[in-house]
Design a protein that fits this description.
The structure holds three protein chains of three kinds. Chain A has nine helices and no strands. Chain A is mainly α. In chain A, helix 4 packs across helix 5. Chain A is elongated and about 50 Å long. The relative contact order of chain A is 0.15. Chain B has a single domain, classed as Alpha-Beta Plaits. Chain B is globular. By secondary structure, chain C is of the alpha/beta class. In chain C, the strands form six sheets. Chain C has a seven-stranded mixed β-sheet. In chain C, strands 22-26-23-25-24-27 form a six-stranded mixed beta barrel. In chain C, strands 11-10-9-12 form a four-stranded parallel β-sheet. In chain C, helix 13 crosses helix 14. The radius of gyration of chain C is 27 Å and the shape is globular. Classes of the chains: A mainly alpha, B alpha+beta, C alpha/beta. At the B-C interface, helix 1, helix 2, strand 2, helix 5 and helix 7 of B face strand 3, helix 8, helix 9, strand 11 and helix 22 of C.
């Protein structure tokens, strides 16, 4: 019995350790984006809806980070001479992809779908991403940390399924 | 709530192994090293069982059997799992939650069908295989047990799609990869509780049998005997 | 030792730390590099594209799943008539070859025995200079393609540079090649809807055939109607155990069996007298030959096939309303293969080829004009390289004939003497390794190609569309040949600039005829069907350009309701073409005392020794025998005991050409006296090499007419 208990403890540690370590790294990392994108200006002042740029939010798992195809719709000619805007214009005019970093990523053993949460569940983006209309610079860390505890709390609160295999795969 | 089940018609099966490949490709099942494979650690969720023979030469027939997880209604594996990494869902799928699994392998020992496989090692996969990974399924780490989940990721996607289109999940929206790939439609899949569904009708056929039914595991994967 | 809860928690904590430290370096949950960009960055947009699998003769429609524009998986196209959504293991892994690390990325030239990358322009110049101004017969082309379009182009190209040394290894036309010398016509398909009795001579219908997916379904439907299906073959293959009766017989005795079936039918008098009278040229001579030498008792003595089975099968065949005796390309793989085929033709003639069908209107592009000049299977084949002093340029397209032939050593020596050997293979294999210049073709997913087939009983054109742009600087061999024709023969009226122009010129008549439908909807039923049959069209295209776009997008075109007719050939079969029994070049490999016979069999996981570079197939090759990454032999337990061989023991299999190690596996379904060896293992060039190529140990026995290697006429010893 004791032996089994010890073995069990070791094994439990092994599995837990593996998962905690790998996801923790991504969560704490501070990210600096290639262009200092101003959400407050776009979404706040000009009131461009989130979906205008994060176009796949109702359609798929990923909300998608807009790139030159989307930015180029407005920034194909330089408008004002702010440094960030000029950078965007350069990427667009040279047909080069902007190397955005994504801050939020869910491990591959979890199914997270924006369509399910925003499209079907009608959740507000703010719930997980905070009020982006206030941010003049791109966020450097996750607003709501991607932790199972955070998923769980919300699922329990809203009486959504907490069956493991509904999200894990 | 549907109850998913599968019926494999051995009369139609040509043992072409398309289901075996489809399963490996769909679920990113690891290709083990030569050494491990020769020690019986090859990983197959769906496997063509080694041939046995009926009759005497030359009137002889081989018995082949594609065998995946039986998705028992009374699974013996879930009873021994210390961490509830494997459990039975409401729709009858016996799920395996990889992040929860501690790799104790009690479930493997308790499975009468030996359908569960253990990740003995995580080897570098051939380059071309890595690039063709299915992004819908996680790549399991070393030291955990895995098994056929009736391609539950396909159910996740299909039910979400149905919801987005404001309709119920229809039969045929969700089928596992082996069912889709079978060139002779030997595998039927669907809701066993729906008495009119193909799979339910087939499971009550006079040819239907389950593997090791006498153990009381109530397998939801059933077979139809070959017609002589 | 007492362990309390506190200790347990301590242990738990310790182990977490311990593993956490180890975990970083070891990366237990490592995500492969290849998917990181997709996983972290891409919008993960899923698209599906239809194409056609070109890995075997099956022409199955494929549905490629692309994530963010990169193919990740392949499934069957549910609207493609040959496979109806199903697909075999080879098709399922067809994405693998796209990313394969062994792929050639640019043209290569051999300098001092080593390959060096060169530019396409330089490679093209080398090839065209080599071909320019050569005398007749100085160049040869060995190709393996299932596309009649590509085959036609190759023949046209070769006739342009004044050479008839062309060999196009195409399963469908090889299968009907025996018809070309003894009959004025060839059948289009075996009519499963009409047939009620089938005798199959060695064809592996569900595994290696003109369309494994189609035949698997057709056989199941056939059996569901409670019709009988008899297989004569040396091995209880999956196709053979799908039949109602398997009768073991060695391939070189097929002619004896077929003719003794004829003997019974002739004596019963239950045959189509009108047909043999009007269409069978030398029927009297033929029936005399059969009566004299092929009585069931004599044949039993020669072949070991019990005469009661022969009589039973013959009576079933003669009383059935439309029976068929079937053979395909596999019959050529024995020394007397073509004669076997003639005997089976004679057997079919007894019932006027009732089980076969023919399309009334030729709706598919016709390449037969060039075929009649040089019928497939006749004429040149790669074995003729040996001793050919005139040969200056040898071109090889996708064929790995060195691996597929028992005389590899002689071939290698002969190829080394040819000044210019050009290979168009996308991979380095046993044959392209010998080339002096390689201009690699695209991968199948990057290629444009068209296939035509009639095997399903309907005319089908399957399109292989480029699913994505080529990764590397590879060249479509069709484009290359089209350009070469234009450059080498300025006088010729040649309007084509690209291979697509060539394809379009052959597809235009199909469009103009306006019949059939694209693979964009299910086969019409009910009212739609009758409208369709009345000539009403539901086309979604208004111009040829539209048609060309859509035939690629949907994966093909077919006519679901073709007009068919009975196949009624005129046979000019002479008794000389059926050599007297017991004579001819039959080698009695099993005759030697104390020796066994090596029977090489094919599996559906490989086609012509080219597929096992796919890792999944490689692992799976021996799974139903529980053998991994090793070669095995199957042996009858009774035979094995005579030689004191234990089950699953390692044995040495020896032939006149050497010996190889293998695991011996008891299989009660193996013919006593045979050792069954799978074909496909033992590559020496690709990275994944294990096992042996059994053909390299086989005696150099070939079919006299087609040069196909014999697979089962080698004496062997085990111990």
């Amino acid at each position: 019995m004791k032996k089994i208990l010890i073995l069990l403890a070791i094994a439990l540690g092994a599995a837990a350790g593996a998962y905690v370590v790998s996801s923790a790294v991504n969560r704490e990392e501070k990210v600096v984006q290639p262009i200092s994108f101003n959400h407050a200006l776009h979404a706040g002042k000009y009131k461009i809806p989130c979906m205008a740029c994060h176009q796949r939010v109702m359609m798929g798992d990923r909300a998608s980070i807009p790139n030159i195809e989307v930015c180029g719709a407005c920034h194909s000619t330089p408008m004002k001479k702010t440094p960030g805007e000029l950078q965007v214009y350069q990427y667009v005019s040279q047909h080069k992809q902007i190397p955005w970093y994504s801050i939020y990523h869910v491990p591959d053993y979890v199914k997270f779908s924006h369509r399910r949460h925003v499209g079907i569940g009608k959740l507000d983006c703010k719930l997980c991403h905070g009020d982006m209309t206030q941010l003049t610079a791109p966020p450097q860390t996750q607003f709501l940390q991607i932790k199972m505890q955070n998923c769980w709390n919300c699922h329990v609160k809203h009486h959504v399924t907490t069956d493991c295999s509904h999200c894990h795969r | 709530m549907p109850k998913y089940g599968m019926v494999i018609d051995l009369n139609k099966c040509t043992s072409c192994q398309a289901c075996v490949t489809a399963c490996k490709v769909e679920n990113n099942v690891q290709i083990v090293s030569e050494d491990d494979a020769q020690h019986g650690r090859a990983m197959f969720w769906m496997k063509m069982l080694t041939m046995e023979f009926d009759g005497d030469y030359p009137n002889i027939k081989p018995k082949t059997l594609p065998r995946n997880c039986m998705q028992c209604d009374e699974p013996s594996c879930i009873k021994v799992c210390p961490v509830r990494a494997t459990y039975i869902r409401e729709d009858g799928i016996v799920a395996q939650i990889y992040p929860q699994c501690i790799g104790c392998r009690y479930c493997m020992a308790n499975c009468p069908y030996t359908v569960k496989v253990f990740n003995w090692d995580r080897q570098a996969q051939p380059k071309e295989v890595e690039k063709t990974y299915n992004p819908d399924v996680s790549v399991r780490p070393k030291g955990i047990v895995e098994k056929c989940t009736f391609c539950v990721h396909r159910l996740q996607d299909a039910s979400e799609k149905a919801k987005a289109e404001h309709r119920e999940l229809e039969p045929g929206d969700y089928v596992p990869a082996c069912v889709e790939a079978c060139p002779v439609d030997a595998i039927t899949f669907g809701d066993l509780d729906d008495k009119k569904s193909d799979v339910s009708v087939a499971s009550r056929d006079y040819r239907a049998f389950g593997l090791l039914e006498e153990l009381g595991t109530v397998p939801k994967v059933r077979y139809l005997n070959a017609i002589e | 030792m007492e362990i309390n809860r506190r200790d347990f928690v301590k242990l738990l904590g310790g182990s977490i730390v311990g593993f956490a430290v180890g975990g970083v370096g070891e990366a237990l949950i490592k995500i492969p590099n290849a998917v990181i960009p997709l996983l972290y960055k891409g919008p993960r947009i899923e698209t599906w594209k239809m194409t056609t699998c070109a890995k075997c003769p099956g022409k199955c429609g494929l549905r490629i799943r692309l994530i963010d524009g990169l193919p990740v998986q392949a499934f069957g196209n549910p609207l493609a008539p040959p496979n109806n959504g199903g697909v075999c293991p080879i098709g399922l892994t067809s994405v693998e070859s796209l990313y394969h690390p062994d792929r050639l990325t640019s043209p290569m030239k051999k300098v001092n025995g080593k390959f060096q990358e060169i530019s396409y322009i330089e490679a093209y110049r080398m090839l065209s200079n080599a071909l320019l101004g050569k005398t007749k017969g100085a160049s040869a082309f060995a190709a393996q393609t299932e596309s009649a379009f590509m085959g036609g182009l190759i023949r046209e190209f070769m006739s342009g540079i004044n050479s008839d040394k062309v060999w196009v290894d195409d399963f469908a036309s090889m299968s009907v090649s025996p018809y070309s010398s003894v009959s004025n016509d060839k059948p289009d398909f075996i009519d499963f809807s009409k047939c009620d009795f089938i005798i199959n001579f060695g064809a592996q219908l569900t595994e290696v055939s003109e369309s494994p997916s189609y035949f698997s379904r057709a056989i199941n439907d056939f059996r569901a109607k409670r019709h009988e299906f008899v297989t004569f073959s040396p091995k209880l293959s999956p196709s053979a155990f799908k039949s109602s009766r398997w009768i073991p017989v060695l391939p070189e005795y097929y002619e004896d069996v077929a003719l003794s079936l004829v003997y019974v039918i002739l004596n019963d008098g239950n045959y189509d007298k009108n047909f043999v009278k009007s269409e069978f040229a030398d029927f009297d001579g033929f029936s005399k030959l059969v009566q004299e030498q092929y009585s069931p008792a004599e044949v039993e003595a020669r072949t070991g096939v019990p005469s009661k089975y022969i009589i039973e099968t013959a009576r079933k065949f003669s009383t059935a309303s439309s029976p068929a005796a079937y053979f395909d390309e596999s019959i050529l793989h024995s020394s007397n293969g073509t004669r076997n085929a003639y005997a089976i033709l004679a057997l079919n003639a007894m019932k006027a080829f009732a089980g076969y069908g023919k399309l009334k209107n030729q709706e598919l592009p016709d390449f037969s004009s060039s075929k009649e000049e040089k019928p497939t299977g006749k004429g040149w084949n790669p074995n003729m390289i040996i001793g050919d002093k005139d040969l200056k340029v040898l071109m090889i397209y996708r064929s790995n004939f060195v691996f597929n032939s028992p005389n590899a050593e002689a071939l290698k020596k002969a190829i080394a003497d040819i000044p210019m050997v050009v290979s168009f293979s996308p991979f380095i294999d046993e044959t392209s390794e010998l080339a002096s210049l390689i201009i690699p073709d695209h991968d199948d997913l990057e290629r444009l190609e068209a296939f035509s087939s009639t095997v399903t009983g309907a005319p089908v054109i399957s399109m292989q569309q480029p699913v994505l742009k080529p990764f590397y600087s590879t060249v479509h061999t069709g484009d290359l040949l089209v350009r070469l024709v234009g450059d080498l023969e300025p006088s010729k009226k040649w309007d084509y600039k690209k291979y697509s122009d060539y394809l379009q010129s052959y597809l235009k008549p199909v469009y103009k005829r306006g019949k059939g439908m694209l693979m964009d909807q299910k086969k019409p039923t009910g009212l739609e069907k009758s409208l369709h049959q009345a000539g009403w069209q539901m086309t979604s295209y208004s111009s040829f350009d539209d048609f060309w776009d859509q035939i690629q997008r949907y994966g093909g075109w077919w006519n679901p309701f073709p007009e068919t007719e009975a196949f009624r050939p005129k046979l000019s079969l002479t008794t000389a073409q059926l050599a007297p029994a017991g004579k001819g070049s039959r080698t009695a490999a099993g005759g030697q005392k104390g020796s066994l016979r090596l029977n090489v069999f094919m599996k559906n996981l490989d086609y012509k020794g080219n597929m096992l570079r796919n890792s999944y197939l490689n692992e799976q090759f021996g799974v139903e025998r529980d053998v991994y990454y090793a070669i095995w032999i199957e042996i009858n337990p009774d035979t094995a005991k005579k030689f004191a061989i234990e089950d699953r023991s390692s044995v040495k299999v020896g032939t006149a050409k050497g010996s190889f190690e293998a695991t011996a596996i008891y299989n009660p379904a193996v013919m006593p006296g045979n050792i069954d060896v799978p074909f496909g293992l033992g590559h020496t060039v690709t990275a994944k090499t294990y096992g042996s190529n059994p053909l390299q140990y086989c005696d150099e026995v070939f079919n006299e007419e087609t040069g196909s290697a014999s697979f089962s006429e080698t004496a062997a010893k085990v111990g």
